[in-house]
Design brief:
13-stranded mixed beta sheet, 13 strands, 2 domains, 345 residues
Length: 345
């Protein structure tokens, strides 16, 4: 099954990445095409009402999940599901997803697990759809497994929300022969350190709020991300070149999305005021395995967290939250306004 999903994933994504869909593409057609490949039992397993509580039951650890995974799907069904995934992400996000899935095989080696182990399993990633895909209506979908949680809401055929978005990497830097030296979240790590190093000592004294990094991202898998007043150094306290570096770091996270999602998130930040962006650091300032560290970028509309503490600081977690529109709050509000309410458990 592993050979099926990973080989199919690689072949399909390489071929369909040659051309990029515009954000205005009707995602509902991709979702419908996927559902049409499923038999009634699989379709029932894969679908939920739009406002079902399962929609908010997201996580990034190995655990039991609802939906259909690669074990359930034949090659035709797998291709249809991956077409929907490709239409929902930018190229870097697609590549990152594939690379994280492949790390499950690295973990089998690191942890000396058998090839058919089901705990570290590249086939154990799930597709779940919420509501009825419709070019004029509201619906959502999720792709999720260990270290990947991608949550989308669609309205009138386009992506109205693409957060929460979680990408993780264990190992952070691979140290076994299978993919030795691979660093899936390299830019997130190295640009974070580069920005920190660009600060002078007085600026670092403001940006570094503690010498101990938290054990994980602070927002966890909360339904709604909430952190109190931002810590660290403000955008207006930076030089022009430092401001540009901070924007480049933000861009590393937003480039995972389709062009229009990326542009809309940037637009919200700039509309509210980019001067409200803060950068906060915790933990070690040494970029090396064994040196726990954390940073976050906080704005009234956007939160980015990065944490590398676990497994001797060689295990990275990152998350992007739209603080006003995770899970398509705007879309869900519109859904409720027309009298739809299920909230089934």
């Amino acid at each position: 099954m592993y050979a099926k999903s990973i080989l199919t994933l690689g072949i399909i994504l390489v071929s369909i990445w040659l051309t990029q869909d515009l954000f205005a593409q009707d995602l509902s057609s991709k979702a419908k095409a996927f559902l049409e490949t499923l038999d009634p039992n699989l379709r029932q397993k894969a679908t939920f009402p739009f406002d079902h509580s399962e929609r908010f039951n997201w996580h990034f650890i190995p655990r039991e999940r609802k939906g259909v995974n690669f074990h359930d799907l034949n090659p035709v069904q797998t291709e249809a599901g991956l077409q929907l995934l490709k239409a929902s992400l930018g190229l870097p996000g697609q590549e990152k997803t594939q690379a994280i899935i492949e790390l499950e095989n690295v973990l089998r080696v690191v942890e000396n697990r058998p090839p058919n182990d089901t705990y570290r399993d590249p086939d154990n990633y799930f597709f779940s759809l919420f509501g009825t895909p419709d070019a004029s209506g509201e619906w959502g979908w999720r792709f999720e497994g260990h270290h990947v949680s991608l949550n989308f809401s669609s309205k009138r055929g386009t992506i109205a929300s693409a957060t929460p978005t979680f990408f993780g990497s264990n190992p952070g830097i691979v140290q076994v022969d299978l993919h030795r030296g691979k660093q899936v979240l390299e830019k997130e790590t190295n640009l974070g350190f580069a920005f920190l190093e660009s600060l002078d000592e007085s600026q670092k004294a403001i940006a570094i709020y503690t010498d101990k990094a938290p054990n994980d991202i602070l927002t966890g898998n909360d339904r709604k991300a909430s952190l109190q007043s931002p810590k660290g150094i403000g955008y207006s306290q930076l030089t022009k070149s430092q401001q540009q570096m901070l924007e480049e770091l933000i861009a590393v996270y937003l480039i995972n999305y389709t062009d229009s999602v990326r542009d809309r998130l940037w637009g919200k930040v700039r509309s509210t005021g980019i001067q409200h962006v803060h950068f906060a650091w915790a933990g070690s300032t040494v970029n090396a395995i064994g040196q726990p560290h954390y940073y976050r970028i906080q704005h009234p509309d956007l939160l980015i967290e990065y944490d590398n503490v676990q497994n001797n600081a060689n295990h990275v977690h990152t998350v992007v939250r739209d603080l006003n529109n995770d899970f398509g709050e705007d879309v869900l509000g519109n859904h409720y306004s027309y009298g739809h309410s299920h909230q089934a458990e």
